[in-house]
From TrEMBL:
Keyword RNA-binding recorded: no
Gene name of the record: cynS
Domain Cyanate lyase C-terminal, first and last residues per copy: 112-183
Source organism: Nocardiopsis kunsanensis
CDD domains linked to this entry: Cyanase_C (cd00559)
High-level lineage: Bacteria, Bacillati, Actinomycetota, Actinomycetes, Streptosporangiales
Entry protein name: Cyanate hydratase
Length: 183
């Protein structure tokens, strides 16, 4: 590991605020100087550029890797770490340098909204849907399951196109394990 790099925390350990894995302007731009660690945002840029160059889709990459397409897309965008074998397969598929692969294996700082509400129209509509339907969904979860939450750790998501008479519809599934509060 480079001198500025810290080992990823073990299970149950928080990522410290001084962690160079954080995608934060507080760390300043990577000037490319010797010994300077690549940041996750730079690895993500390299991944997306390689994806464009090779004219691949997120779904196509997931299929090549044998991984779920929603999880893979989120991981490629910096929200999940890749295991060693998958990171190496991705390196081969996209012709990535070793420094990118090393960053892909690190536990990222999750969460991607730089501003709320998000400015991107698609993200804003998802945000808006949760603002409108979130309280109702919360109440129905409590009504059906009791006092607790839906896990975003033991979680699956899916998006599908559904053709309908009035035009294509977006079908999004959020599948999280119920975790009861325990007192």
């Amino acid at each position: 590991m480079g001198k500025d790099r810290v080992a990823p925390p073990g299970p149950g350990q928080p990522v410290p605020d001084t962690d160079p894995q954080r995608d934060s302007t507080a760390h300043g731009p990577n000037t490319g100087q010797e010994g300077e660690a690549m940041r996750r945002s730079e690895a993500t840029e390299a991944l997306l550029e390689a994806k464009r160059t090779k004219q691949l889709t997120f779904s196509g990459i997931a299929e090549e890797l044998g991984t779920d397409r929603v999880w893979t897309t989120a991981a490629l965008l910096g929200q999940h770490p890749f295991d060693q074998d998958t990171a190496q397969d991705l390196q081969t598929l996209l012709d990535l340098p070793d420094e990118v692969v090393a960053v892909l294996r690190e536990i990222p700082t999750r969460g991607s909204f730089e501003q709320l509400p998000p400015a991107d129209p698609t993200l804003y509509r998802l945000y808006e849907a949760l603002q409108v339907y979130g309280p109702a969904l919360k109440e129905l979860i409590h009504e059906d399951f009791g006092d607790g939450i839906m896990s975003a750790i033991t979680f699956r998501a899916n998006v599908q196109r559904v053709d309908a008479e009035e035009g294509p519809r977006v079908h999004i599934t959020l599948d999280g394990k119920f975790l009861p509060y325990q007192w």
